[in-house]
Request: fold
Amino acid sequence: MTNKTTKKKGAERLKTLGASQSAIPKKPSRAILETFDNSHPDREYEILFECPEYTSICPITGQPDFGFITITYIPNELCIESKSLKLYLFSYRNHGAFHEEVVNTILDDCVAACSPRRMTVHGEFNPRGGISIVVTADYDSSESD
Reply:
């Protein structure tokens, strides 16, 4: 038996995965969401990413906000590479934005990166001032034609 390494289609586009050092981008607009080819584009299946340690900054007070971000999608031709997604989400740490903006921007950026069949971004944010905020944004490619 020979030991051969085979690269998946589209893997040559991946710069972050396998890099010895990967800096967190200073802001989300500078982050790059990398993708690779979906090996089963003919099948509808769901991919779920969870980020239980999401942080950003309140744009008014500058206080830290904490939350749990969930991204669920049915891929089309491309899939999002998880390390680049992690760095993208971590880039919000010093970014000031309201929760509603954050969830919708994450959805827009992920849709732009991989053009999924469907995608949902769900953010559950820790209480501030006694009120928790939960924001969900959806995308369906069949509704955008």
Summary: The chain has a mean pLDDT of 87. The CA atoms of residues 18 and 83 lie 9 Å apart. Residues 47-143 form a domain with the GTP Cyclohydrolase I, domain 2 fold (CATH 3.30.1130.10).
